[in-house]
Amino acid sequence: MNPLREGLSQERVPEPHVMVIFGASGDLTKRKLLPALYSLTRERLLPANFAVMGVARQDYTVEKFRENMREGCHRYARRRPVEDSVWAEFGRCIFYLPAEFDDLEAFKTLKTRLEEIDGQFGIPANRLFYFSTPPSVFPLIVENLGKVGLVSRQHQPWSRIIVEKPFGHDLQSAQTLNRQLKQVFRETQIYRIDHYLGKETVQNMLTFRFANGLFEPIWNQYHIHHVQITSAESLGMEGRGAYFEEAGILRDMVQNHLYQLLCLVGMEPPVSLDSSAIRDEKVKFLRSLRPIPADQFDKYVVRGQYGAGQVMGESVPGYRQEPGVNPDSTTETYVALRLMVDNWRWGNVPFFVRAAKRMPKKVTDISIKFRNAPYALFGQNQGASEVANVLTIRIQPDEGIILHFGSKVPGPSMDVAPVNMEFRYGTSFGKEPPEAYERLILDAMLGDSTLFIRDDETEVSWKFITGVHQMWAEQNLRKIPEHPAGTWGPREAEALPATRASEWRKP
Ligand SMILES: NC(=O)c1ccc[n+]([C@@H]2O[C@H](COP(=O)([O-])OP(=O)(O)OC[C@H]3O[C@@H](n4cnc5c(N)ncnc54)[C@H](OP(=O)(O)O)[C@@H]3O)[C@@H](O)[C@H]2O)c1
Question: Using alpha carbons only, how large is the chain's radius of gyration in Å?
């Protein structure tokens, strides 16, 4: 057996096709997409008849583009340095075409070039289009692809598109974008990407819940006190201030990544692993989120912004002092939500969700706090929170699952102290997981849309998030609570959990 294939189960190899990347001179292509394709080549997971066509405005030659991409793989691929033998195979499949996206003639040239590549590589006109550009140009690309007849709506040859986030900036723009894409593609051809769904730990949520008989019977309001989902980032704007001013953390993190985590924790068991079955359950869960009551808005949503402070011993500027940020900005860099789910499983169980920049550390995790024992036999109630049963699913860093429970302290008395039982990905399997983009690109090549977002899913999540933005707009907030960088958020957020038993964890 080829040593590169060892240990890979259920290998599937996609059909021959050309992957066309729009926005190929950008950061994402160099840092994520081409390194992912290189790794897939290295693992022998791509078809022998395969090519990549990069399209962007930069006037690169094919040689220059290949050189840039090799450098990208050299810096960012999972296994470095780049192996010459793998590159010799992969590099020769990479092509480039300079084009303006509003130039129909350029799309005609693209069609001709792709047909030549089909002939050269023996590819039956299958296409995977990747939109790695600013969303403002998505409609233009779709329209021109349609006009020059580059999109097949048939099963053979097939055409698919992967669309990068952000998918709209509110409900209306997401609906408009869905309509525009569907003028040329069928919904089943559209793969809206959220790279969180490519992470092993995130996929493991399904396995953990539905492959084990132990947890599902207690995964409900009778046993779970509350759920917390935290996405904390220690970094600030890193040059993305102008982008962030328009987005804010609610759009940038919650509408997409954290809502995906929320769905996987809260959804009902799907009837199968089929993409429709899983996505139906996610949408059903999102539909059962209770709209935030306007008259109690502050009890359900808190936003904040970081001021100057210290992160990991280093002095850092406040958000409004970051380049590209309005000095009077009210854009939120911190948001915390208390979400209630109106269904039988979760009635009265709050889901607390928070996302923020410039926190004391970088961590993304989900913690499920179980109800206390009905009677404090050991008198442990004074220290109830210390011996609470909490299941923590760590998404990053140190991916794994930790169960916190109370144990007897050795010695003559019956003292109870918290201890952990821990599973870590790194040590348990002894092999490195693929990068999220490797997994997701491969799935799209194979026509498996399970880990991509469906049209109704984007719209139902935007409906909720747009509701929050509208309430902020109505409140016309000129001031936003500020907290020093390097702390766990504004004081106002402490009141959201309302009781000591559900207070925010400090991961
Ligand atoms: N970078 C990331 O880590 C990341 C993560 C998640 C999502 N995303 C999303 O992925 C997409 C791409 O991000 P990025 O960071 O790669 O952006 P970027 O570095 O700004 O690259 C944008 C690309 O689009 C091309 N482009 C823009 N307007 C064009 C036009 N009118 N005609 C032709 N080409 C045009 C640019 O070509 P020229 O250089 O030739 O102008 C460039 O290749 C965005 O939607 C972003 O939100 C990025």
Answer: 24
From 58-72, 216-230, 406-420, the region with the lowest mean pLDDT: 406-420
E strands within 86-198?
Answer: 94-98, 127-131, 159-163, 190-192
Q: Is the CB of 168 under 6 A from ligand 1?
A: no
Q: State in Å: Cα 262 to ligand 1 middle.
A: 28
CA-nearest of 428, 364, 375 to 231 is: 364
56: Cβ below 6 Å to ligand 1?
Answer: yes
Q: Which of 422, 357, 360, 372 is nearest to 394 (CA)?
A: 422
Q: Are residues 332 and 275 in the same domain?
A: yes
What pLDDT digit, counting tens, does each position of 433-478 carry?
889 999 999 999 999 999 999 999 999 999 999 999 999 988 876 7
Burial class (CB in 10 A: 0-12, 13-18, 19+), 422: middle
The residue range of the domain holding 114 is 3-164
Residue 431's pLDDT is 78
Q: What is the pLDDT of residues 92-147, one digit of tens each?
A: 999 999 999 999 999 999 999 999 999 999 999 999 999 999 999 999 999 999 99
Residue 152 and residue 208 in one domain: no
Look up residue 416 and give its two tokens: 């109870």
Distance, CA 459 to ligand 1 centroid (Å)?
24
**Per-residue pLDDT for 3 more than 70?**
no
Q: 365: which 2 tokens?
A: 């995790």
> The domain spanning residue 337 has which CATH number?
3.30.360.10
- 8 A C-beta contact, residue 65 and residue 24: yes
Kindly report the backbone phi and psi dihedral angles of residue 452, in degrees, each rounded to the nearest multiple of 5, phi listed first: -120, 165
Q: Which of 168-182, 236-250, 450-464, 472-486 has the lowest mean pLDDT?
A: 472-486
The position carrying tokens 């020093």 is 484
For the record, the structure tokens of 458 come out as 């984007």
Shared domain for 160 and 266, answered yes or no, is no
Residues 160 and 225 in one domain: no
Q: Identify the CATH number of the domain in which residue 76 sits.
A: 3.40.50.720
This prediction's pTM: 0.93
Residue in 133, 138, 161, 437 to alter for ligand 1 test, most ligand atoms within 8 A of Cβ: 133
Kindly give the distance from the C-alpha atom of residue 58 to the centroid of ligand 1, in angstroms, as a whole number: 12
Tell me, using a 6 A CB cutoff, whether residue 26 lines ligand 1: yes
Among this protein's residues, is 226 annotated catalytic?
no
* Number of residues assigned to the chain: 507
Counting beta carbons within 10 angstroms of the beta carbon of residue 98, is it exposed (0 to 12), middle (13 to 18) or buried (19 or more)?
middle
Q: Report the 10 Å Cβ neighbour count for 103.
A: 13
Catalytic residue selected from 17, 195, 225, 257: 257
Residue 156, burial from CB neighbour count under 10 angstroms (0-12, 13-18, 19+)? exposed
The answer to whether position 311 is within a domain reads yes
Q: Tell me: do 36 and 81 sit in the same domain.
A: yes
The total of structural domains in the chain comes to 2
Cα first-last separation, the chain:
44
